[in-house]
Amino acid sequence: MPEITNEDGNSTAVAGGNGDVPAEALSPNLFKRYELGKLLGCGAFAKVYHARDLRTGQSVAIKSINKQRIMKGNLAAHIKREILIMRKLRHPNIVRLHEVLATKTKIYFIMEFAKGGELFAKIAKGRFTEDLSRKYFQQLISAVDYCHSHGVFHRDLKPENLLLDENWELKVTDFGLSAVTDQVRPDGLLHTLCGTPAYVAPEILAKKGYDGAKVDVWSCGIILYVLNAGYLPFNDTNLMAMYRKIYKGEFRCPKWTSPDLKRFLTRILDPNPSTRITVHEILNDPWFRKGYKEIKHPLDREFEFKESGGEEGYLNAFHLISYSSGADLSGLFGQSGNCISSEMFVSAKLPEIIIKRIEALAEEERLRVAKKGTGLRLQGQNWKYVVMVEIHRLTQELLVVEVKSNEFGRDLWKDKFKPRLNDLVHAPEPQVAGN
C-alpha cells in the first residue's frame, strides 16, 4: 500500500486505487481535518487521494507532494508558481484550490474533487458526437480565456489534464507547467520548452520564443480534434516524424466531420502563430457560438466585499499562510528567497477609494488599467505586464492590499505610487497603559 505522512511525521497506510478499503478505516486523519480515502493517481513527485472534509462532509482531492523529491528535481519554483496561480483562479471550469497545508516532508494541495475522473478515460472508450465535442470545447475555451485575462498560460492542455465533475462538466487542472505574464521576456515572448509532444505547438519546437496564449489555442485545437475523431491529428511512432507533421500543420479530418468544423479546425491548427485564430475570434466563430452559454463574471462574487459579517469574501487560512511572507512561499520548502516582487499594506479605506486613487495615478503615468474582480492590472506600452493590485478583506473593518510587480513595474510602484498612497495605510491606535 502507498503511504502518506500525517502532521506528526508518522506514516499511515492509504487504500489503493481499487477502492477496496473504506475511507472510515483510515486513521489518523490528516491534520484532524481530512479523512483520507483511496489513491486516485500518482506521479514522480506527487500522489492524489480522495478525502472527506470532516468539517463539511464534502469530498475533496488531496495532492500530496514529496518535498525531498521536489528539491532534488529543482522544482520548488514550479510548485510556488502553481500555488500562486491556482490561488487566484476562480472559474466553474477550473479545479479550485481550497487551501495548502505543509509538514516537514510534505506539501498538501486541498482541491475540489472531480468525481467524473479524466476526460481522457471517456475519449478512450470512443469519440464524441460533434455537439458533445462542442460543449466540452466551449467549456475549455471559457476557462482558457479566463486564465489569459488573468495573465496565466497553461502550456500543457491535454485530455489527461481535463477532469469531469459529478454533473459531467469540464474542469481544467494541473497548472504545474503554467506561465504568468511576468515571465515574458523583453521580446514579448516566452522561451521555456514545455508541454506534451502530441499537443505542443510548432513554434515551441522552433525554440525561437512563443506567445503563451497562441500555444494554448493550438493545444485546444488538438483536444477538439481528438474529441471529434477519437485519435490525434499528428501522430507517429517516430517522434521526429511526428514533429515534422506538426511543423507542416498537415492533417486530415475523419469523414464524419462537418464542413464548418473542418474549417474551424483549420483555423485553430494553423502552424503559423501570426495567422492562427485567437481566443477572441474563437468566441465569435459561428460553429463555436451554437448553444454557447457565456459566463460573464465567473465566480468573481467570491471576491466581492461583503459587509454582512459572513465568511464569504474574507481571507481564508490559505491566504493568511501565503501572506505571512507575501508572495514568497519559500517557507513551505524550509528556505528563504523571493521569486516574485510582492508587498502588502493594510487599509481601513473603502475598496472603491483605493481603486480610484490607483487609477488616477495610473492615468498620470499613462498606464493602461484593466479591472479584474476586486483588483487592477496596470500595464505599460505594448501591454507589457507592470503591476497587479489585488484587494482582499481581512476583517469587517480592514482590507489587505497586495501589490505584485515584475522588473518593469517594481521601481515604478516604489517611486511613483507608494509615496503618494501613504495616507491609505492603516495605522493602529497606540495602546494606552492601564486600558
TrEMBL record:
GO-annotated biological processes: signal transduction
Cofactor(s) needed, names only, are: Mn(2+)
Record domain Protein kinase: where? 34-288
- The portions of this protein that span the membrane are none
Q: Keyword Glycoprotein on this protein?
A: no
Q: Per the database record, which ranges form the NAF domain? A: 310-334
Instruction: Return the similarity comment.
Output: Belongs to the protein kinase superfamily. CAMK Ser/Thr protein kinase family. SNF1 subfamily.
Q: Which reaction does it catalyse?
A: L-seryl-[protein] + ATP = O-phospho-L-seryl-[protein] + ADP + H(+); L-threonyl-[protein] + ATP = O-phospho-L-threonyl-[protein] + ADP + H(+)
Q: What class of enzyme is it?
A: transferase
EC number(s) reported in the record: 2.7.11.1
Tell me a Gene Ontology molecular-function term this record carries. Answer: ATP binding
Source species, please? Handroanthus impetiginosus
By its UniProt entry, which InterPro entries does this protein fall under?
A: Kinase-like_dom_sf (IPR011009), NAF/FISL_domain (IPR018451), NAF_dom (IPR004041), Prot_kinase_dom (IPR000719), Protein_kinase_ATP_BS (IPR017441), Ser/Thr_kinase_AS (IPR008271)
Q: Which UniProt keywords apply?
A: ATP-binding, Kinase, Manganese, Nucleotide-binding, Serine/threonine-protein kinase, Transferase
What protein name does the entry list?
non-specific serine/threonine protein kinase
**Tagged with keyword Kinase:** yes
Residues holding ATP: K72
